[in-house]
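Consortium newsletter contribution from the modelling node. Members have asked for a concrete example of what our holo predictions look like. Here is one, prepared for the nickel (II) ion complex that several groups have been discussing at recent meetings.
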Amino acid sequence: MSDNLMISSSDLRAKFSSAMSLMYRDEVPAYGTLMDLVAEVNSTTLDADQELAQTLKSTNGLSRISDERHGAIRLGTEAELKLIRRAFFQMGMFPVGYYDLSVAGIPVHSTAFRPIDGEALSINPFRVFTSLLRLDLIENQALKTDAEAVLAARHIFTDRLIEMIDQAEAQGGIYNKDADEFITEILITFKWHPEANITQELYDRLHQEHRLIADVVSFKGPHINHLTPRTLDIDQVQDLMPSRNIAPKAVIEGPPSRKCPILLRQTSFKALEESVDFVDVKDGKHTARFGEIEQRGIALTPKGRALYDRLLNETRAKCTPAPDGSNAQEYVETLQETFSAFPDDWATIRKEELGYFHYQLAENQSEAQDDQSFEDMIESGQILFSPIVYEDFLPVSAAGIFQSNLGDKKAANIAHNSNQELFETQLGAKVLDEFAHYAELENASKEQCLKQLKVSH
Ligand code: OOG
Ligand code: NI
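And here is the predicted structure:
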């Protein structure tokens, strides 16, 4: 590797993701246990399903199957969000989607910083679900003022990191020789700081207002609060967690287990209690960090998403999962039953325009008869289609993950207040519309087929 060349943003992101993984395993040993379990289950699943093994080999490379797919952080101020955006940009991670968590009683709004193009995703798909605290939703003015003062005084990036970002922006990237230093510096931002910035008294007041506020305001920086490897069998890992002495949350978030997986299923182990030194009191307690796993399916169109949302709401109206897991079985059955209304074969999902697909010409296929339509060619197998994977997140699931790790108390009573415009002002950029993006991917693949057919005429 030549030192006077620049590292590609995807290679830098891959370095970042694996450095974060090592750091987090070291900080949260239970996370290491979860990683081991995921790797075991993935390998058993692949042994039992050669077809899956082949497909994954040709698309992703088997060695990275169990690697982290995402992590999450929570920020305190607009200035922090803008800095994070600049840092993630260097790693090829762009803000996609707007998530309003206030609907679930959590005073944040969020985006996911992630790679966008297919090549970048296949080199390393690591994303960071990034939330910004919304003190504008807090009614307690005195508390709000105190929280703002604490946040205004902290610096989540080292001076050196800011210098490196300035330089990278001026020169159009990061040189190979500087890549390791960049990673070392940015890891400092996301590491756990057991020393709080504040007194136990202020912590208690923040905590009482909302646990999340305490988690954001009390510390020197936005510690990574979980990482999430990919599992090939989420139900199995959920079932096996207790045998490894880790306590899973009550139910898996998202759609039920299906033949044709849709969107995103995820679950986590419960956050652990950790020791914190407050300014005045040593050895206090805080609960924040956990481990999660995910399994992804097809990206749904707005129509498919509306159906998903309706069925999920119907399920939850019939049976709301209790945090202690007491009705988990009933919930899973209700979910399965309710989702039987969602077609479970790719052809129907495509025909009914519920999901996005990638199209390609079948091998040796270069001739279209003049009277054949695109649909005819799909029908006859001359054009093949495969699901486009959902690379984003789900607000109801995210709320479930937040809540199970904030102690599962009843959701706080805060005003519902979706405000994408405010978020984009705070971010200093627009977020990419995920639906428009998937539609574009689908269209591009169709265009490509048509182009190839024309050329061969
Ligand atoms: C983020 C929760 C959202 C997910 O996977 O939906 C999330 C957080 O707890 O900060 O990571
Ligand atoms: Ni997550």
